[in-house]
Amino acid sequence: PTPLLRTALMLACENGSVETVEALINAGARVALVDSMGHDAAHYGLSTGNALIQHFLQEAAQRQSWASGKAAVCSP
Fold it and tell me: What is the per-residue pLDDT across 2-23, written as a single tens digit (0 to 9) for each?
Protein backbone atom coordinates (compact mmCIF):
# COMPACT_ATOMS: atom_id res chain seq x y z
CA PRO A 1 0.00 0.00 0.00
CA THR A 2 0.96 3.62 -0.52
CA PRO A 3 1.27 6.15 2.36
CA LEU A 4 -2.49 6.78 2.22
CA LEU A 5 -2.91 3.01 2.37
CA ARG A 6 -4.22 2.86 -1.18
CA THR A 7 -4.08 -0.51 -2.85
CA ALA A 8 -2.87 -1.17 -6.38
CA LEU A 9 -6.52 -1.61 -7.36
CA MET A 10 -7.42 1.83 -6.00
CA LEU A 11 -4.53 3.41 -7.92
CA ALA A 12 -5.46 1.61 -11.13
CA CYS A 13 -9.07 2.78 -10.75
CA GLU A 14 -7.98 6.35 -10.07
CA ASN A 15 -5.76 6.30 -13.16
CA GLY A 16 -8.49 4.82 -15.34
CA SER A 17 -6.39 1.79 -16.27
CA VAL A 18 -9.06 -0.68 -17.38
CA GLU A 19 -6.57 -3.43 -18.22
CA THR A 20 -4.83 -3.17 -14.85
CA VAL A 21 -8.14 -3.10 -12.96
CA GLU A 22 -9.27 -6.22 -14.80
CA ALA A 23 -5.96 -8.01 -14.15
CA LEU A 24 -5.96 -7.13 -10.44
CA ILE A 25 -9.55 -8.27 -9.99
CA ASN A 26 -8.84 -11.51 -11.84
CA ALA A 27 -5.86 -12.02 -9.52
CA GLY A 28 -8.13 -11.69 -6.48
CA ALA A 29 -7.81 -8.04 -5.47
CA ARG A 30 -10.26 -7.20 -2.69
CA VAL A 31 -12.60 -4.46 -3.86
CA ALA A 32 -14.08 -3.77 -0.41
CA LEU A 33 -10.83 -2.53 1.17
CA VAL A 34 -10.85 1.13 2.19
CA ASP A 35 -7.90 3.49 2.45
CA SER A 36 -7.01 5.83 5.29
CA MET A 37 -9.52 8.36 3.91
CA GLY A 38 -12.34 5.79 3.98
CA HIS A 39 -12.48 5.43 0.19
CA ASP A 40 -12.72 2.12 -1.66
CA ALA A 41 -11.77 1.24 -5.24
CA ALA A 42 -15.27 2.16 -6.47
CA HIS A 43 -14.78 5.71 -5.16
CA TYR A 44 -11.65 6.10 -7.27
CA GLY A 45 -13.26 4.40 -10.24
CA LEU A 46 -16.16 6.84 -10.15
CA SER A 47 -13.77 9.77 -10.35
CA THR A 48 -12.72 8.65 -13.85
CA GLY A 49 -16.27 8.11 -15.07
CA ASN A 50 -15.19 4.86 -16.71
CA ALA A 51 -18.22 2.57 -16.93
CA LEU A 52 -16.12 -0.52 -17.68
CA ILE A 53 -14.11 -0.09 -14.48
CA GLN A 54 -17.35 0.22 -12.52
CA HIS A 55 -18.66 -2.91 -14.22
CA PHE A 56 -15.55 -4.91 -13.24
CA LEU A 57 -15.75 -3.65 -9.65
CA GLN A 58 -19.46 -4.51 -9.34
CA GLU A 59 -18.93 -8.00 -10.71
CA ALA A 60 -16.03 -8.58 -8.33
CA ALA A 61 -18.00 -7.31 -5.35
CA GLN A 62 -20.78 -9.76 -6.14
CA ARG A 63 -18.29 -12.65 -6.26
CA GLN A 64 -16.44 -11.75 -3.08
CA SER A 65 -17.67 -12.56 0.38
CA TRP A 66 -19.36 -9.81 2.36
CA ALA A 67 -19.84 -12.02 5.42
CA SER A 68 -18.94 -9.31 7.93
CA GLY A 69 -21.20 -6.71 6.35
CA LYS A 70 -18.44 -4.12 6.80
CA ALA A 71 -15.68 -2.83 4.56
CA ALA A 72 -12.22 -4.07 5.44
CA VAL A 73 -9.57 -1.47 6.23
CA CYS A 74 -6.02 -1.59 4.92
CA SER A 75 -3.49 -1.80 7.72
CA PRO A 76 0.16 -0.78 7.63
Answer: 567 899 999 999 999 999 999 9
- Asked if residue 34 lies in contact with residue 72, where contact means CB atoms within 8 angstroms, the answer is yes
Q: How far apart are CA 47 and CA 26, in angstroms?
A: 22
65-69, long-range: CB within 8 Å, 24+ apart, which pairs?
Answer: 66/32
Query: Whole-structure pTM over 0.85, yes or no?
Result: no
